[in-house]
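Tokens for chain A. Residues wanted.
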């Protein structure tokens, strides 16, 4: 979270919020109006871990849906891109998520 707040304050100026559905699904961060980010502190993110991002994708159209975790390599599961946290931070600071 510290990296996202720092990026917002020093680079993007985008709003930083979260999302919660009426049925209880939650997504950790929404960057501006374009990127959803769910953070998982586990090495192998499963399809089950992506339920909230999939629920958000059904309800709200964003540019991208990301799950950041301890996976060793990036992969795509339906509309969600699963990223190792190091790759997410590199892309964030290089301006990829605007």
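Reply:
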């Amino acid at each position: 979270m510290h990296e996202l707040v720092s990026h917002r304050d020093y680079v993007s100026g985008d709003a930083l919020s979260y999302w919660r559905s009426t049925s209880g699904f939650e997504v950790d961060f929404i960057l501006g109006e374009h990127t959803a980010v769910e953070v998982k502190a586990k090495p192998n993110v499963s399809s089950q871990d992506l339920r909230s991002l999939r629920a958000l994708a059904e309800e709200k159209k964003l540019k991208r849906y990301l799950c950041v975790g301890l996976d060793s390599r990036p992969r795509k599961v339906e509309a969600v891109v699963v990223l190792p946290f190091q790759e997410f931070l590199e892309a964030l600071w290089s301006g990829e998520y605007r």
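Strands lie at 16-20, 26-31, 35-39, 64-69, 75-77, 80-84. The mean pLDDT is 87.
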